[in-house]
Amino acid sequence: MMKKYRKDDRISYTLGTTLTMELLNKKIEYVNRIYIHSKLDRNDTYYKMIDICKNNNIEVIESDKTINNLSDKDNCYMIGVFNKFEERLDDKNHIVLVNPSNMGNLGTIIRSSIGFGINNLVIIKPGVDIFDPKVIRSSMGAIFNINFKYYDSFSDYQKEFSKRDFFPFMLKAKTNLKDKVINGNYSLIFGNEASGLDDSYLNVGTPLIIKHNKTIDSLNLDNAVSIALYEFTKDEIE
Which parts of the chain have pLDDT scores under 70? Predict the structure, then answer.
């Protein structure tokens, strides 16, 4: 029987019908098998899944035991097992997360990033595992639409993508988000949920601050990223 996810595994899996169908539609080349529960409705979605798998030589296995072992929810009736992958970053705009530690935040950020048209994600190590099923679930399948890459350090990333505007988001920044100046492709840089970015990032590009009332110390990471995404892309979205 398949064991629950471990970071060192070469595979991961989707929990639920919606996520599994998103996997099949967007990353079918990485899928190696599908598990279904005996309670799964034999509806249009089921037959669509069967046709996709048959046409791509993907094994479909009915196993209540496997699904019950992998999922902590009673209404999970389909699981897609896939090989881990890494997509090449393009030269367009990037979201950069330095040492993110919360799986739910990462999934939400991926979904927001895709929603605002930024399809490149950089994670500076150490950072949460993007292939953890909890991240996949919180992204609601958006992980299958994003390019991402892990880097050992920010300097490694900066060397590879040096010809762009860098915007670190920091409480010590002097420039307000609304006063930003965009000259070309850019990277929006955010720190860890607990500690943010260290002072060295004050010397990187143009540090920005999202001003808010003093009744709170700071914004949650996923909220800050969403606000920044909106401000940077609002003129591009119809």
Answer: 238
* Sheet of 186-190, strand order: 147-151, 120-124, 94-98, 186-190, 165-168
Helices 17-26 and 44-55 sit at what angle, rounded to 10 degrees?
40
pLDDT tens by residue, 9-67: 999 999 999 999 999 999 999 999 999 999 999 999 999 999 999 999 999 999 999 99
What the chain holds in terms of domains, given with CATH numbers, is 11-83 (3.30.1330.30), 94-233 (3.40.1280.10)
The DSSP 8-state label assigned to residue 29 in this structure reads G
**Cα–Cα distances in Å, from 137 out to 96, 193, 214?**
21, 20, 34
Percent pLDDT > 70 in the chain is: 99
The confidence score (pLDDT) of residue 238 equals: 67
3-state SS record for 67-101: HHHHCCCCCCCEEEEEECCCCCCCCCCEEEEECCC
Q: Give 54's contacts (C-beta < 8 A, 6+ positions apart).
A: none
